[in-house]
From TrEMBL:
InterPro entries: COQ10_START (IPR005031), START-like_dom_sf (IPR023393). SUPFAM superfamilies: Bet v1-like. The lineage of its organism: Bacteria, Bacillati, Armatimonadota, Armatimonadia, Capsulimonadales. This is Uncharacterized protein.
Length: 164
């Protein structure tokens, strides 16, 4: 299963990266995140093991809030504009996630992409289950909401700081 979400954000790349890397703060800024607990953390804070819990809203029916939970190793590379996650617990164990932040040469802002890749050890799970249910049904939807919310926060902050 492979899925990607991309947005262009008008604002400082450093601020976008700061919000994305500080997963422990996500429940305070992302309404679909219920909890993020740091289980381990390096001294510099760039490597963490986190337990995350979110909700997938509108799954199967409008108004339904389907809870999901997983555990990940997170590595932040601010100098390269990348954040890596390796899921080590939950339904998507083994999934690799890469956030990439790049300046857009066409002036659309910072291009932020989240790519997810997952191959289950049992081949029977890699068809509709991985692609349609896990990938499209949950991963793509939750990542899209995450990016849209970070975009709103950064662009609102940028407008508020703009000279009049």
């Amino acid at each position: 299963m492979h899925t990607e979400n991309t947005v262009y954000i008008q604002g400082p790349k450093e601020r976008i990266f700061e919000l994305a890397c500080a997963t422990q703060n996500w429940p305070a800024i992302l309404p679909h995140y219920r909890r993020v607990e740091i289980l381990e953390q390096s001294e510099d804070g760039l490597r963490k093991v986190v337990e995350m819990a979110a909700v997938r809203e509108g799954f199967l029916s409008p108004g339904v809030r389907f809870p999901v939970q997983w555990r990940s190793v997170q590595i932040c590379e601010p100098e390269k504009g990348r954040i890596f996650f390796k899921h080590i617990g939950g339904i998507a164990t083994g999934m690799w996630v890469v956030w990439t932040l790049e300046d857009d040469p066409w002036g659309r802002g910072v291009r932020v992409t989240i790519a997810h890749d997952l191959t289950y050890p049992l081949d029977i799970l890699n068809g509709w289950f991985a692609r349609d249910l896990v990938g499209d049904g949950f991963v793509h939807a939750i990542a899209g909401r995450t990016l849209q919310t970070i975009k709103q926060i950064v662009e609102q902050e940028t407008r508020a700081q703009a000279p009049v």
